[in-house]
Amino acid sequence: MAMDWAMAAGRWLGWVWLGVLAGCGGGKPQAADLQRAESMRPADARLAGKYQRSCLICHGNQASQAPLAGFAPAWKPRLEKGMPLLLAHVRDGLNAMPARGYCNDCSDEEFGRLIAFMAGDGGEGAR
Ligand code: HEC
């Protein structure tokens, strides 16, 4: 009898936990998402070069807490802030995000393209 109750409670807690995992933050990146984040590059070779020595260091690496490149659920709440605010945060920095994201020779236009690239599925997205 007591065992039944404990099992039911355990199952209930399990569902709550699953709900927390699935519900908040739009899901967790899986191995394939991490692999894509590490390997995807902007199609434009010049931009890819800049990306590779700046944004990629953190945005291609889950351990950095940066929204993962190419992982849409991580970017959805960011994009909802609007591109002008995102650009301002790249220029000025935001918490662990350094000002200009280590790319001192990136123009605003390039920052915009890099954001669209990371927030998209690996294509360069809207420009
Ligand atoms: C040293 C690590 C690091 C580098 C390099 C880096 N980022 Fe970030 N970035 C972060 C972290 C961490 C966050 C999350 C900041 C937060 O929300 O607290 C972030 C967040 C962002 C955001 C979301 C800002 C917002 O308002 O939500 C954008 C856009 C962004 N980065 C763009 C870039 C671009 C473009 C580059 C390359 C030019 C870049 N980042 C390089 C660590 C980095």
From TrEMBL:
It holds the Pfam family Cytochrome_CBB3. Signal peptide: none annotated. Residues 45-118 form the Cytochrome c domain. Gene3D superfamilies: Cytochrome c-like domain (1.10.760.10). Keywords: Electron transport, Heme, Iron, Metal-binding, Transport. InterPro entries: Cyt_c-like_dom, Cyt_c-like_dom_sf, Cyt_CIE. This is C-type cytochrome. It comes from Chromobacterium phragmitis.
